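Please annotate the following for my students:
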Amino acid sequence: MLLVSLFVLTPIAPVLHAQTENNARKLIYRVEPEYPADLKKIRIGGLVRVDATISPSGTVEDATVAGGNPILAEAAVKAVKQWKYAPLDTRTKAKLVFHFNP
């Protein structure tokens, strides 16, 4: 299962808890992280924490790993960089947590 932003459920692989500062930004487009098949097959899972900076236009300007399983981090960051949020007057930050469950 996947849990995103304002806790919307979607029946897809990793679980994601996403929260922005004051929940001011609405996530309007997301790309699911690709759970590497070889890691899933050998049941390697874990969590990845990502800090994202969102521009006023809603694009993700920067996404950096804040902790968690380094093997899965690349998939999480790659997905987050493709996300789009609703426009807002200011730049905001989002703290995201991905749970990869094999």
About this structure: Confidence is low (pLDDT under 50) at residues 1-13. Helices lie at 37-41, 70-80. Strands lie at 2-4, 8-10, 15-20, 27-29, 46-54, 60-68, 84-85, 92-100. Residues 70-80 form the longest helix (11 residues).
